[in-house]
Amino acid sequence: MVLPKPTQEKAMSTLALAPKTLVPEIEFDDPPSRTKPATPRRALSRRTKLLLLGVPALALTVTALSFWLAYAAKFEETDDAFIEADVHPVSSRIIGDVLEVLVNDNQIVTKGQPLAKLDPRDYEMKLAFAKTTLEQAAAQIPQAEAALERAKAASRETAAKIAVAAAQLEKARLDFDRAEKLYTNEGRAISRQDLDAAKSAFDSATASHAAAVASQDASAAGVRAAEADLIAATAGRDHAQAVVEDAELQLSYTVLRAPDAGRVGKRTLQTGQHVQPGQALLAIVSRENWIVANFKENQLSQMRAGQSVELSIDAIHGQRFSGHVDSFAPGTGAKFTLLPPDNATGNFTKIVQRLPVKILLDETEAKAFASQISPGLSVIATVRVKP
After folding, report:
1. What CATH code would you report for 75-118+263-384?
2. CA-based, 20 to 30 A from 94: which of 148, 174, 239, 363?
């Protein structure tokens, strides 16, 4: 049974004042709804509208995805890339104690700039001793030259004596021949005593000539000995000069200099430290940087030297750098490991290899961010392989 609304309100107020035990429960029907229920025709229309809106959106999404895939096919990207630079280790070439350290950590230095000084006193003494030895060796050269001149003069004198002895020998021979003819053919025109005197003079001249020739050999030997002494003296001077130069070189090693321009890194050098030859003391990191990007082997088919590269350095947010592909490594990273893989033995599992690619940064952009670009930083490299 449905009662009018005023009647319902009156009945409800009466029930609220009456005791609950005496009032029976009366059920009222819900009032009629003022809104009409949605018809199936209106719900179908809503689904149709959603369908009509979704189809163009899906088509637009597919079109955009197609364009994006076509654009992405022009590039090859890898995040396995890092900044590299030349790192020059600085070590001592001699034994010594560090007297003074002239640079600080991360300081910018130029090529040849002094970095530290070692105690030079030991090497200064060696240099002084070497110079004294050089002076002594140099003083022996004039003596050797004078001895050579004396030997040559004696040789010339001996040559003159030989000429005199030869002339005397020829005269004695002629005198003996005439005396012999006079004594034999002319009926003993001279006495036997005169013949014997001529014979004795001839023999004496022959002996004198032989002695002169022998003295000439001795003089020649003396000249050769003097020349050898001069050569030895010259060699001794040259050796002493080399010792002096070596001592000067060792003394120059007491000043450690930068092998190249860059920044100081990994400095372990301290004042008073005793250093040994070859001991690493610090490193100079070159300011010329490049990128080594390790691309997968299936990314290299269309990659060539000279292609442009877009670079993003993780440490420099919001900045894009440009560069170009410089060269490709002669082998994959696996071939340069300590124990390269031997795929000819056992079971084979194919693993995609990576090839290091060297990429050069644009110099203008690199100089603008030189203080923030350091070796070892991670880079995302995107190479444009198609125009």
Report:
1. 2.40.30.170
2. 239
Cα–Cα–Cα angle for 160, 164, 169, rounded to 5 degrees = 145
Which pTM was predicted?
0.63
With residues binned 3-state (H G I as helix, E B as strand, rest as coil), the percentages for the chain, rounded to 5, are: 50, 20, 30
Lowest mean pLDDT among 6-10, 136-140, 256-260, 311-315: 6-10
| Domain(s) of CATH 2.40.30.170: residues in the chain | 75-118+263-384
Residue with token string 């390269």: 340
Residue 22: predicted pLDDT: 42
The span from the CA of 304 to the CA of 327, in Å, is 8
Q: Cα separation of 101 and 106, whole Å?
A: 14
Residue 77 β-bridge partners: 382
Q: Is 376 left (phi over 0), alpha (psi -120 to 50) or beta?
A: left
The rounded mean pLDDT for the chain is 82
What's the token pair of residue 175? Answer: 């005198």
Mention the CATH class of domain 121-252.
mainly alpha
Q: What is the C-alpha to C-alpha distance for residues 292 and 310, in angstroms, rounded to an integer?
A: 13
pLDDT at 11: 46
DSSP string, 181-231: HHHHTTTS-S-HHHHHHHHHHHHHHHHHHHHHHHHHHHHHHHHHHHHHHHH
- pLDDT tens figures, 93-146: 999 999 999 999 999 999 999 999 999 999 999 999 999 999 999 999 888 888
- Residue 183 burial (CB count, 10 A): 18
